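Batch job 17 of 40 flagged for manual review because the log was empty.
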Amino acid sequence: MDFSARYVALGDSFTEGVGDDDPARPNGVRGWADVVAGQLAHSNADFGYANLAIRGRKLRQIMAEQVDAAVAMQPTLVTMYAGANDILRPKIDIDSLLEEYDAGIAKLSASGATVVLFTGFDAKGSKVFSAMRGRTAIYNELVREIAENHGALLVDYWRFDEYDDWRLWGEDRMHMSTAGHVNMAKRVLDVLEHEHVIEVPELAPVRLMNRVEALKANARWFRESAAPWVARRVRGVSSGDGLSPKYPELIRPL
């Protein structure tokens, strides 16, 4: 099917939509990119959307599997978030990775599409992931430079202080909640300077836990989320193994 406007979303779980559960959609998730596509389609009846993102994908996998596939669709808009799964690895050569990232963005930019990139989130509020702040800051500076060099737009996630509120995160504390995804959709549409009618779901009141409750919650999180995540890395497997992209071909957004 031919479309006059074609949006292709690339990346990992962030763009696939993990944390925003929707059993009616492929892979069982919706996510901010689906919301953005729906809003863009409201003003253009001839609008197509593909989402090639797969959870667990590292930067080099995204470059190898998704960039050329996106260019082949002759996109008018591309969003890309890649690198978070690399930053969490024990060892990383950020400079080398971002050289490959730069080459991928060059291809996307040369296609004539509007390209939108993201900085990484500042996890200063997380006792676990705050150890990666230095790496993320270096990654962000290189992403900002790449965006500037290729005329890409930038969604500066690092500076979004609203994500210091844990209610915008899912129970696994690694992926945004439904409210977090909807808020991100608004942020992306603002960068695109596109009008939208999105309301972030009302957040539940903050419930303060006593020490015993907090210990139990942390133990449950470690058992149900952190331990399986570590085990996958030890075994060299990914949560995205065996998964296909949600929308590998251009469709009219749901």
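Reviewer: the log was empty due to a logging misconfiguration, but the result itself is present. The mean pLDDT is 90. Unflagging and moving on to job 18.
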